[in-house]
Amino acid sequence: MSEKEVILTPEGLKKLEEELENLKSVKRREVAERIKIAIGYGDISENSEYEDAKNEQAFIEGRIITLEKMLRNARIINNDEVDINTVSVGSIVTLKDLEFGDFVEYNIVGTAESDPFQNKISNESPVGKAILGKTKGSNVEVSVPAGIIQYQIIDIKK
What we know:
Strand order of the largest sheet: 5-4-3-7-6
Largest sheet: 5 strands, mixed
Structural class: alpha/beta
């Protein structure tokens, strides 16, 4: 089975590389030191500090493997690849909610970079899927748990 392609913006790539570097160079050392100190307390069979440090170590190592795999399968979307006529990964899209008249602006990113609190939504999210490939002026329907939301694509930029 081939590994899934990870779509990243240059900014997203930098963020993942920085996280990986921090985990490898700082966090690994910190948790190793915590384990060493906890072992110094004696019997590790009932040592919660040791148990916590080992769990954190397992999490860190798992995250390192995940990040390395993501970076190995990364496809970088450069700004000049973003078409302002069609919604794609890298687009910044202004939508109008046709029921309430509200406007919202989303940056369409790959799943690794999505952060709804920063209005960065994944190309695989319900809204992302619905607007991908659409053009300015298009109306789209998005199925969400609360029902169906209708949007009009007001603007596409990069």
